Q: What sequence folds into this?
């Protein structure tokens, strides 16, 4: 209980057990963020997030957890929204450069690695702190939906379906039970909404659960309307 | 009680619970600032502030909480006025560049994000401290009034109506009770004044409550005269 | 008593209560400085200072608290004279640039904000300490006398009349009691001298109280002679 | 128990016993990483790794411990994958430059030393932390297979066969017992798989043990298929 | 007794009482330096110093406390001689530039302010320590002798006569008692020698007390010979 | 026991006893390194080292303690091999430059001083740690063999014969007893091997003791074969 | 005993008593160095040093305490030889530049001040430590021998005769007793050797005491042969 304190004051350095404390503390912040979920399907990919506003008077238009990165990719964030904006700006720029240079949509792993590489720099050099945000990046590569994640350490991983943020353990358990290979995009959206509900406290409504999809046929990011979300809420 | 002290001495870093202490301390400063309020309406936006001078001899001309950023946008500040000036200068410059580059008024979310991005940098890099100021940014986008806020972390949010600073909980409770969709600009100004009064200690007069509006038709920032404010004070 | 020490060792950072300790400590230094007073009048502005030398052999010619910044503006300082010189040099340069660029005397608020902006930088960046000086800036804008102040935080304010430095509370109480709107420049000078006397320990003479005025008609900074000061000492 | 803490807070410096604590802590991280194994043979070289995914839903396509560096060289990593990516990028760039400059494949020791030199810089200069990763580099030099390792200190060594990561002591003991000079590439692959199994907790399957080989005749890095791996699992 | 230690470790920062400890500690060093004295007269200015060598074998030629800065100005130092050399080099350069640019001897206050400005920088920025030296600068401005002082804070003051260094309180008391307006240059030299003797431990001889004068008529710095000094020692 | 800890945390600074702790700690590391020996003779110079590999499977080809620096000079290292590589690279570059510039082999003292100068910089500047390595540099200058050493402080010395590393006291005692002026190169090699054996734990074989010589006649660095080494092992 | 530790960890700063601890600690190192002596005479200057090697096998050719700086100047060092080399390189460069620029030998005080100025920088700026070396600089200026010293603070002084290093108090006492004005160069060399013997532990021989002279007539630095030194050892 006492020992950790000796290692976390300065830059991101190793503790005697070989852990990077600042990175682990940033992950604590992520774990307290509102839940986000990504589900992939042969027909495309889905991202869902709980965007419950702070108060009745908050304008939901300006409170977003889901962002479009490129025509065929979107991302959901858990953690510090101001930190996330830095990574999102860089990611969008990278997508555009890719289209300009190669005249084709960026490969999703290449994009995710790029975000991770940027985050890694902030864990190894003094004078900065790690980014306090994890992301779920979802879209279409080739003909299938794909879901990847990045975290404050700069690591990235790929998943069929995954949840990040508050109560993500519960949401991930639900995903593991219900995810089936060959799931349709519509089922994927339903599963994503269900997982967000699992991880959310209290009841959730279509004004609170936001969903975006990237169908494999159109390869175009699209936010679901409230009506579409409501359908998935039963 | 004892633990926090171990984490706040150096640059803005994460505590074991994943909090950025320097940012939270800056928010403490904001919470002690004189109350400011923003209210949006389909007819425009309103900002109000308590500008009670320090003494009878203070010249109110030089003590301001409300600033014009562009023809169609204004801002109120809570916290360190010297820190606020840095952000306001940058914001004005950004508004002017936008007009020069695109020949149109800056979008209010774009402007607010810019201020937030600047503030974020001061929370992630060593050698600086976060800005000790929160802002309410109010103006007209398209045909409607808009109210947004920034804080020391660099986050921004949008509201129908919101209060920041001393006793903002009381003021926000009042706003939540009385704010109605489709409120007129005149009612919005009245509500803003009322909320400032709620958050102010003791009695307030028109020489103390300052109000600025941006009507949706003129799209032009205007400070209310003392007479106009008096009207709203009943 | 013990806690503050944990927060003031490094750069200027926030304490858990949202205070900038280094700035507050610099203000302590200012409060121990010899008293300075500024009084505005429709006919001009007055600055007065206690320039009691350290010993009988000190050459008063080189011990000054009052400085001319431009033809129409002067300043009095409380705190570290070596720090003050840095700000005064910058202020003079700014006044000259303004005349060169716009061919007119600098606006007094613009000048004071400039000094404040410079001071603010020293409160937000590592590797420097705040300036240990507060200033009263007095002069003529348009047709009236004006009095403004800056402090180590970079904040600035305007006053009809104000005192800074040792026993400024007593001096300000006197100013609040006796200041009258429409006061003549001669009365303003008398009031300024009285306020310096109030804040000074022991008896004061014309060789110790120094006064400078900027009349609204001439718009020209002028130091009062010992005889003129003596007149105001009764 | 208490003493070490005094030496590991700042940059990578020597302890009184002449140890570099940050480097040793990074090695702790490596020791907790999933096991990797390299085996050389006159017929080529083998790398094997335990790539057990985190959950049933993890997409193994994006979770790799084995990377191709050049046509004739591959590497396995133990430790922080985000740190490893930095070294792998640099290594690939170096391989390409070498081909461009000298029109021949890079010598394996030269490549490994380059990786080690980069890692060394991060142990001697302030403002960075050592890389939290060890690598096994395997490939073909001249006509034989070669296996080398790098660690966080920047040191490199060559081995007939070696294991790094979790339970590497057990795996290395097995390698020392069973490795024979003149081993065939097929036997080497079998031995590598066996060593990974020895170091892995629980049972392992072909979907979890990944193997890559560089045969001396083709000099071309190739990942074994699941079927090929299954064969080596008995 | 304990508290000061908390504030003096890092750069020159404010203590809770608004003091700059590093500057005050540098002044302690100055107070332990050998005594120096300056006396002004309508007929010129005098500097005197105790230049007692360390041992019988020290070569007094290389042990100086009095330096010529320009034809019409000299300086005596108390404190670290190696620090003093830095300021003296800069001062000489400034005097030469002034002659080149304006074709006239530098004004003594301008010169002294320049030295003070340089010293001030070393009290406000990190990465340096204040200069551990105070100076008495004496010479002729217009038609009169002048004496000014600088200290580690960068402040400067003017005096009819003043002493700095070891036992300067005693020497200053003597100067206050005996200094008379209109004193002749010869009397000034006598008084300066007497003050050095007052501040020196044990007996002093002409080989130990060094004196330099700048007569108002010649405006030329001149060191007194041992015979001339002996005359003033009675 | 307690005191040292207060002085070794930051850059390489002096302790109250005038010692550079970081340098002394680096020397501790050197003292734990495998033993190396250098012996000079009128007929040339010899370096010997214990290159016992870590395990039976280590490839001795990649584990070296002896390096050729130029045609006529070699070096043995004790300490961190990754640090040594930095110095060796610089030394080789320096040798080559020397041949290019002056068209002759570099003087051995000039080369050794260069290595020492580089090491010295790392003991006087912040942001780096000293090199954790000592070297024995052996070769031919003029017509004779020469042996020099460098250490982490940047000091260098010359010896007829010397040992560095683990149990170097024992080895040096042996060298002092048995070294004779006018020793032949063959005897020197035998003495070097003997000294390595003295300093090594357990029995040593020709596969473990490595020897390199620079004969005065050929002036060319040459590694002895295992057979040649075996001869010297009796 | 406890207090000093609070002030010596960071850069070279003032203690509450106005002392620069890092400089004083460097002086401790100098006081432990082998003794060096300088003696001046109207006929020239002498430097002597105890160059006792570490062991019987040390090559005295590479272990020097006395260095030639220019044709007419030499220097002896006490302290860290690696630090000394930095200053000696700079000094030699300065001597050469002087000859190139002015076509005459450098003045000895100018040279010594230059070395001191370099050392001073290392006592006032962060990121470096003071030089751990004192020097005796001896040579011929005009027609006489001169002896000057520098120390880690950057101060310099001149002496008829002086000793630095281990037991320098004893050696200086001897010099004070025996030094006579008008001493011949030969007597000066004898006195220097005697002083080195006084400061050395145990017996000293000509192979251990090294002497260099700069005669006033030749103005050329020359090392005495062993035979010449033996003569002075009686």
A:
């Amino acid at each position: 209980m006492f020992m950790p304190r000796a290692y976390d004051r300065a830059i991101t350095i190793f503790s005697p057990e070989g852990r990077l404390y600042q990175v682990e503390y940033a992950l604590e912040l992520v774990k307290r963020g509102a839940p986000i979920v990504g589900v992939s399907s042969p027909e495309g990919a889905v991202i869902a997030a709980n965007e419950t506003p702070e108060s009745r008077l908050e304008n939901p238009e300006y409170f977003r957890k889901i962002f479009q990165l490129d025509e065929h990719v979107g991302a959901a964030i858990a953690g510090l929204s101001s930190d996330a904006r830095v990574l999102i700006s860089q990611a969008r720029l990278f997508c555009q450069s890719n289209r300009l240079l190669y005249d084709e949509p960026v490969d999703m792993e290449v994009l995710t690695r790029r975000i991770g590489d940027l985050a890694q720099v902030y864990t190894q050099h003094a004078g900065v702190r790690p980014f306090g945000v994890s992301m779920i990046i979802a879209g279409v590569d080739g003909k299938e939906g794909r879901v990847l994640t990045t975290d404050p350490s700069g690591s990235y991983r790929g998943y069929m379906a995954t949840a990040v943020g508050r109560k993500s353990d519960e949401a991930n358990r639900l995903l593991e039970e219900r995810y089936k290979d060959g799931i349709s995009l519509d089922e994927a959206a339903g599963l994503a909404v269900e997982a967000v509900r699992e991880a959310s406290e209290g009841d959730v409504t279509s004004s609170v659960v936001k969903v975006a999809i990237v169908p494999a046929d159109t390869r175009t990011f699209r936010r679901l309307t409230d009506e579409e979300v409501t359908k998935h809420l039963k």
Observations:
- Strands of chain C lie at 36-41, 44-50, 66-70, 73-79, 133-141, 144-150, 156-159, 161-164, 209-215, 222-223.
- The first strand of chain C starts at residue 36 and ends at 41.
- Chains C and F do not touch (no CB pair under 8 Å).
